[in-house]
Amino acid sequence: MGHTSARLPCAERSCQRRNGYTLLIVMFAIFLLMLGLMIAVPVWQTQILRELEEELIFRGEQYVEAVRIDQTKNPGQFPSNFDELLEERFIRRLYRDPMTEHGEWNVILLYQRGGAAGQRTAGRQQRGARQRGRTGTPQQGRPAAKQQAAAAPQRILIAPQNVLDSIENASIIGVVSSSDRESIRIHNEQTSYDKWLFFYGQDPEKMPEIVIYGQEEKDK
Description:
Blueprint: H1 2-73, H2 82-87, E1 106-110, H3 120-135, H4 142-150, E2 155-160, E3 172-176, E4 182-187, E5 190-192, E6 198-199, E7 209-212
Parallel strand pairs: 2-7
Antiparallel strand pairs: 1-2, 1-3, 3-6, 4-5
């Protein structure tokens, strides 16, 4: 009995040492895990952002290509909404803005003097011309329209997608992201997504004059 009672304190001390070592190992493992996460998460986020940027370029170019195909069918008569491109199968599907949660683009339109409110008749005439083109009735003034379509726009109007229906003379030529977040890569010398323009007739080396929807009347 005497020998047994003498050995118990030693066993307890040995158990305590083992528990202490185990705790240190667990704490060290947690530290390494947290350190790894601190390094990996920014790299992972950057990689995701780079992939989104590639997707933004792809989707933007899809709209440019859709407008280009539209121009081969309806020279000079630009679509007034995205549904026209989809209905005529000029685009596979209506892609969302990958840089925002809501997915709505800012739409790039041909700038027309007088603003949206002053050009309602022109908008109706444009849509009527597109309809006549589908039914085979000759369109008037096509040579001038072709010349307009071929020239790079010197001034463009950028409007939110959700106000597109209120712009009756809308002439869609492309899209741009509504996110003003700073980009990782530089695209056409621009470093924020709301400056990455994708539109028909674009000259990558020359930035057009940009008019923001709602501000064109203030400039008059």
